[in-house]
Amino acid sequence: MNIHKLLIYITATAVSTYLIRMIPLVAIQKKIQNRFFRSFLFYVPYAVLASMIMPAVFYAAGDLRASAVGFATAMIFAYCEKNIVTVACASCIAAFAALLFL
Fold first, then answer.
1. pLDDT per residue over 2-52, tens digit each?
2. TM segments (predicted)?
């Protein structure tokens, strides 16, 4: 790939990312009053993050059963309100142990 095409791709990506973030900021000047729309905007980042992470969760360990064990462990620790480092470490250890024993 030559440098000219690469610069065009980078510029197109930068412009599209910039427009996606700037158009709502410029178009909506006053505070949003609608409760439904405000709650929708509040939960969008969590929904997007979950939709990006969930497919990778079940294929990360290479074995569906081990990944499911790691996921279940993470859900239990998160439900018990452990911090994120504890949840991540426990789920990784559980998935690794499941890979060894399953």
1. 899 999 999 999 999 999 889 888 888 888 888 998 888 888 888 888 888
2. 6-28, 40-62, 82-101
Exposure string for 42-52, b = 16+ CB within 10 A, e = fewer = eeeeeeeeeee
Q: For residue range 55-81, list pLDDT tens digits in order.
A: 888 888 889 999 999 999 999 999 999
How far apart, in whole angstroms, are the C-alpha atoms of residue 75 and residue 33?
A: 35
The predicted model scores a pTM of 0.59
CA–CA dist 61, 49 (Å, integer): 20
Token pair for residue 51? 């939709």
- Report the C-alpha gap between 24 and 85 in whole angstroms: 34
